[in-house]
Amino acid sequence: MKNSDNDEDDLKKERNVNKTKITLLRIIFMVLVVCIFALFGASLGIFMGIIESAPDIAGLELKPSTNYTSFIYDVNGNEIDRLSSGQERIYVTLDQIPDHLQKAIISIEDERFMEHNGIDIRGILRAIIVNLTTNQTEGASTITQQLIKNNILSPEQTITRKIQEQYLALQFEKIYDKDLILEYYLNTMALGHGTNGVQAASHRYFNKDVSELSLAESVVLAGITQAPTRYSPITNPENNNEKAKIILQKMIEQGYITEEERQVALAENPYDNIQTVNQQYVEESPHTYFVDAVIEDVLVDLQEKNAMTENEAKNYLFGGGVEIYTTFDPEIQNIVDTHMADDSLFPVNENEIKLDYRVSLHKPDGTVQHYNAVEMVKSVEEIDKFKEAKLVEWGATPEDTVDELLLQIPQPQAAFVIMDQSTGQVKALSGGRGDKIGDRTFNRATQAKRQPGSTFKIVAAYGPAIDMGILSPGSAIDNSKLSIEIPGQPDYSPRNWDGNYGGTITTRKAIWNSTNVPAVRTIQSVGFDASFNYLMNFGFTTLLPTDKVYALPLGGLTEGVTPLELTAAYAAIANGGTYIEPTLYTKILDRDGAVLIENIPTTHQVISASTATMLTDMMEDVVTGYGTGASLSRWFSGQPVAGKTGTTSDEKDLSFAGFTPYYTATVWLGHDDPQSLSGSNQNEHLHLWGEIMSDIHSGLEYKNFDKVTTGFVEASVCSVSGMLPTSLCRGAGAVTTDYFRTNHISDQYCTVHGQTKICTVSDMVAGPFCPPNVVTNKITQGASYGAVCNVHTQPPLPQTESIIPQLIPDSWFNEWPEPMVSEPEPEPQPEPQLAPEFVPPPVEFIPIPEINPNITIEIEEVPPPPEPGGIILEEQEPTADDQSIFFVPQG
Ligand SMILES: [Zn+2]
Ligand SMILES: [Zn+2]
Q1: Residue 84 and residue 70: Cα distance in Å, rounded?
Q2: Which end of the chain offers a freer environment for a tag, N or C, measured as fewer CB atoms within 10 Å?
Q3: With contact defined as beta carbons under 8 Å apart, do 271 and 200 qualify?
Q4: What distance in angstroms lies between residue 753's CA and the mean position of ligand 1's atoms?
Q5: CA 731 to ligand 1 center in whole angstroms
Q6: Domain check: are 107 and 250 in the same one?
Q7: Three-state DSSP class for 411?
Q8: Which superkingdom heads the taxonomic lineage of this protein's source (predicted)?
Q9: SS3 for 418-445, per residue?
Q10: Is residue 1 part of a domain?
Q11: How far apart are the first and last CA of the chain?
């Protein structure tokens, strides 16, 4: 019984155990189910969270918005340059992209693109199998996903981003059609060597518009995309070619091309052309000095006019796909460049060449070593020696392959700027001779601050003085030695280049002869503050308070001025006194073709039209006759020219600023590290200016300067006294005809020129005993013949007197103009010279009669001359803008 009980118990126990096991399993199962649900729920939650955190599709634009190449056009609207941030992108629409290029890219990137709804399930499954069964990694991004990845999401590879990408791909496919997605993609895809999109890549690799690409060229491009470096057709053409063949095979399989088309493509070798195009691209010079200057201007304007930060402006200019229409004239620039490259136009004995030698040595073991040296040589012949010495120094062996780049920067350097004075448009510029190294490098035309020398006399001294009514072209200025006391410094004594001092000199001659002393006396009368006001109005921005010194009109500045600003100042004179801010571009269009900036230059009147006319007239004398720029006529004579030379006293800078009725241009010549040009003939800059302007004006109709006739009169004065001339002044050859403000004409007749009876034997004042036949009337200046004849001190013997024939009628002794004894005709001179012994009245300028500033002298009011032909030839009424300047400086 016990046993059965035991059995029963055992059975019971067993049943209980089984029951427990089942319960446990059930619990485990339940827990598992709960866990799975929890995991699934959590996953779903996370997944939904990722999707929730994806950018809102409504605010997203699939069209790429940055890294568009910007374009620069010349004055004729032709493209001259492109700007990109190393990432070139040029937008094209789908109809401009050949079908075989579209299909080549679809076949390699996303063969079911036309069928899927944004994600490719078959592709994903295949990728999982490939990734699990091989050690290859394969992605399954559709074209839509890649477009989202490139344009919207950050590029990092995370599960989160992958999920968002797939989610967004499904969403975008609902609102964009396939063609638009493909168009955006083809304009976005990275194709190596800094190119984005098929158009930029087509230009970079084939130098062709994308619409012209053959099938063979298309598969080359399509082959790049999966690994732009490994499949680069430039550096790895074999890899690219393998890939291209695979793509052709896929295109056959997918029914896009026929076997015949493949054979044609295989027979074509696009790689040689790619190498040629690449070589051109590498050797292509960087942006020109003009484009560099445009870039600098636009960057400033985008900040000032469009409230961008410097960085925003830079990104916008180099990646915003803008179109900049410049004032650049390619024909004029070509002429400038041709002459700047002509070494025969530059001082040979001054010649130095700065060499920048860059070498890569490719060693037989595959390593590469890079070297660089910068040195000066004296002549072209020394260049080869220099290179050989460097290669030896760097340990080059005959087994090495040498990649070299040699840049030559000749010295002295030069700069040239040419503007149309009527519009302010800069037509061309050159920032230097020789090789241009890199972009946005030092631009001698727009950035170099150099000493303007005597070109500054016009804008700092004579222009203001004439405009303020202090001087007229015919005014006589004291040219005697000058010594100005400056507290705490040695006295300032300007020196005349020709060593001639003393007497007076007209404003006109002081300009054409570039005499320094009168210019310094003029700035004393004008005053530094007034002069500075004019200089600011002439557009100079680089002057400093320390430039308010007596050397200011001589161009002795603390820092200097740029050739561009000097050109603009002279252009204001050429433009009748109205300054126009120099412009390099006229407008900027944004990527959609809307006007972003209309670049209308600011203008203002600096000097009156009559001042401009008088300055122009005087500066015409600089380049003719005995003027300091007279040699210019040897190289350019086709149009009237007015201008001013500028040579600094130490001959470190040679400048000429001048204009024709068409253009205003400035040339500068000097060493980058300033040093004397005394070994040159000092005319090279005039030669350069003349040659360039001669070519530029060739074929242009002859024009006269547009001068006004009001605000001044033409009058003849005694050039010594500055007073109304008498026959004696005329007899002394001391009458000059020039332009005057009417209040600068004296109402007094010359008191300096007189006449005295002179004994020709002693050359002294004739005494009572000098025989009449040796006595002559002589025109004198002041009282130079003081003493009485000391030869004829006694009455002549009667018999002597009787045998001397009466050769000269008595009346001749009393009358002018006939000379008593023939005197040598005065030598024809460019301008009457003063007798050296004459000491002018101790005044800075000629005495000017005190008159009411508001009264204009009418011709009737001028006293009649003692004999005809004396004075005012022509009277012009002053204009309203001249009225204000009719004042007489007091003291
Ligand atoms: Zn006189
Ligand atoms: Zn005598």
Answers
A1: 6
A2: C
A3: no
A4: 4
A5: 9
A6: yes
A7: strand
A8: Bacteria
A9: EEECCCCEEEEEECCCCCCCCCCCCCCC
A10: no
A11: 156
Q: Which ligand is nearest to the CA of 719?
A: 1
Element (H, E) at 766: none
**763-790 CB burial, b ≥16 within 10 A, e <16:** ebbbbeebebebbbbbbbbbeebeebbe
Is the domain of 763 the same as that of 734? Answer: no
Of the listed ligands, the closest to the CA of 763 is: 2
CA dist 654 to 388, 455, 666, 671, Å?
Answer: 36, 10, 11, 10
For residue 372, the Cα-to-chain-centroid distance in whole angstroms is 29
The whole-angstrom separation of Cα 581 and Cα 567 is: 11
User: How far is the C-alpha of 142 from the C-alpha of 133, rounded, in Å?
Assistant: 22
Predicted pLDDT of residue 33? 80
Q: Mark whether 363 and 434 lie in a shared domain.
A: no
Q: Pick the ligand that lies closest to the CA of residue 866.
A: 1
CB 418 within 8 A of CB 689: no
Assess if residue 27 is contained within a domain: no
**CA 102 / ligand 2 centre spacing (Å):** 113
- In 3-state terms, what secondary structure has residue 267? helix
Cα 682 to Cα 702: distance, rounded to the nearest angstrom: 29
- Structural domain of 377: 351-411
Kindly identify the ligand whose nearest atom is closest to the C-alpha of 735: 1
CATH number at residue 463: 3.40.710.10
Cα distance between residue 2 and residue 72, in whole Å: 113
Residue 376, SS3 per DSSP: strand
pLDDT tens-digit map of 536-567: 999 999 999 999 999 999 998 999 999 999 99
Give the Cα separation of 607 and 463 in Å (integer): 8
Report angle CA 736, 842, 862 to the nearest 5 degrees: 40
pLDDT of residue 185: 92
In a domain, 53, yes or no: no
Residue ranges of the chain whose pLDDT lies below 50: 1-4, 800-891
- Please count the other Cβ atoms lying within 10 Å of the Cβ belonging to residue 809: 10
Q: How far apart are CA 188 and CA 64, in angstroms?
A: 7
What pLDDT, in 10s, does the model give residues 342-384?
988 888 766 678 888 888 788 888 777 778 888 888 887 888 9
Structure-block tokens of residue 131:
């990734």
Give the H/E segment covering residue 579: strand 578-580
Is 742 in the same domain as 716?
yes
Extended strands (E) in 56-205: 70-73, 79-83, 88-89, 195-196
How far is the C-alpha of 556 from the C-alpha of 361, rounded, in Å?
49
The per-residue pLDDT for 783 is: 61
727, two tokens: 């026959």
18 found inside a domain: no
Give dist(CA 638, CA 698) in Å, integer: 8
Are β-strands 323-326 and 70-73 bridged in parallel, bridged antiparallel, or unpaired? parallel
What is d(CA 443, CA 428) in angstroms, rounded to the nearest whole number? 13
Cα 677 to Cα 447, 547, 666: the distances in Å are 21, 24, 18
How many CA within 13 A on the CB side of residue 776? 17
Listed residues 688, 708, 728: the one ending a domain: 708
Cα 613 to ligand 1 centroid, rounded to whole Å: 27
pLDDT at 40: 76
